[in-house]
Amino acid sequence: MDTTTTQRQADLFRALMHPARLAILEMLRDGQACVCHLEAHLGYRQAYLSQQLATLRAAGLIRDRRAGWNIYYEVALPELFALLDLSRALVGVTASDTRAQARPPNCPCPTCAAKVAHSLASDPHSVEA
Fold first, then answer.
1. CATH number of the domain to which 34 belongs
2. Residue 40: domain span
3. Long-range contacts at 42-49 (CB < 8 A, ≥ 24 apart)
4. What's the number of CA atoms in the CB half-sphere (13 Å) around residue 86?
5. What is the pLDDT of residues 65-94, one digit of tens each?
């Protein structure tokens, strides 16, 4: 086997070799997310998330885009999810054990704020509706 290929594989696994990075990738399974989403869901501080995101971006696993004050991240290689699924199966964990739950209402990004406002307006029992 070509040493360049094995080195690239090792680099990929090195980038994946951190629980926070795996959690970020699981969050991005449902599509793009801003840092405030990741912060609200995962409970990590913004500075720590930025370090982990930089590693994933440098490895070419995620890409970002700026929209106003927010930076949104998404997985650059959808094939990555097959690898994550396989790794879960190898350790005996099901997808439902690791999937992100509904986004929390304390995320300040425009996407979440609009969803929270919509759900409050459509809930007849809501105090704020």
1. 1.10.10.10
2. 3-99
3. 44/20, 48/20, 49/20, 49/24
4. 5
5. 998 888 999 999 999 999 999 999 999 987
